[in-house]
Amino acid sequence: MIKSYKDLTVHKEAFSLAMDIFWRTRKFPEEEVYSLTSQIVRSSRFVSANMSEGWEKRMYEAVFKQQLVTALGSNSETQDWLDYALECKYIDKKEYVDFSKKNDKIGKMLTKLYQNWKSYE
Fold first, then answer.
1. Residue 117's CB: how many other CB atoms inside 10 A?
2. Which of 6, 11, 38, 75 is 20 to 30 A distant from 64 in Cα terms?
3. Which CATH code is given to the segment(s) 8-26+34-120?
4. 53 in the Ramachandran plot: left (φ > 0), alpha (ψ -120 to 50) or beta?
5. Which of 16-25, 77-86, 107-116 has the lowest mean pLDDT?
6. pTM of whole model > 0.90?
7. What is the pLDDT of residue 42?
8. What is the 3-state secondary structure of the chain?
9. Residue range 6-53, pLDDT digits in tens
């Protein structure tokens, strides 16, 4: 039984990816600290953060579902920043594929949670 947002597999996956991205961005060029680095770290963190905020508001279905939509948006934004990181050669193709696969999986899990959220309680 799910008692907390921390029990949601999708939250665990999103948190883990955000931390992986955070640690990898520590090797990005210093001139990117206020642009690409901060943007990709922020968007990846917002995925799990919006889930946790929404979870506490789940008694209000529309509010909870909107938080999941926002998390999906941040998930998509993270993918866009990963595309930039690859094109700028800040990450290699293997890292890009690994991050992208995890990000895609999270997006699919979020969509499923959005569609079936009542069965998670």
1. 16
2. 38
3. 1.20.1440.60
4. alpha
5. 107-116
6. yes
7. 98
8. CCCCHHHCHHHHHHHHHHHHHHHHHCCCCHHHCCCHHHHHHHHHHHHHHHHHHHHHCCCCHHHHHHHHHHHHHHHHHHHHHHHHHHHCCCCCHHHHHHHHHHHHHHHHHHHHHHHHHHHHC
9. 999 999 999 999 999 999 999 999 999 999 999 999 999 999 999 999
